[in-house]
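hey so i finally got around to running the thing on that chain from the lab meeting. sorry it took forever, my laptop kept dying and i had to restart like 3 times. anyway pasting the input first so we r on the same page abt which one it is
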Amino acid sequence: MGTNGKKNPLLERFSSVVTSAVGSSAAFVVAVLLIIGWLVSGPFFHYSDTWQLVINTGTTIITFLMVFLIQRSQNKESIAINLKLNELVAAHSRASNRLVSVEDLTEEELKVLRKFYAQLAMMSKQDIDMQQTHSIEEAEELHEEKSAEQKE
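ok and heres what got predicted. didnt touch it at all, straight out
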């Protein structure tokens, strides 16, 4: 965080760019090529301890840094998904507001809710054939209803 309590926008951008880059196919190919290069160089260095230390040190450093970067990215994604789900819960009149910020509940409270929804799912499976309840026509009707509501 910066001196005024706000997150550093430079760090935010750097983190985002690096996360995207290292998650790409190109990054995987580069990593494989580096390993192949290291393996090929083995005979030139007589498979010495230093040769082995180079790969061990390099991969350890990269792994150490990536753990923090991945966790940062995961935290951001988790917050975004929770906000989206909270919006859906809050927007639906029949949804339980207890589910807004459900991530703050204790493990025991979560177990109680899980049992409730497991029971609901079991009853739903007994009552309804999924192919009969979700059709293209139903999707079109739902879309038209939402479009009409948004125009109001």
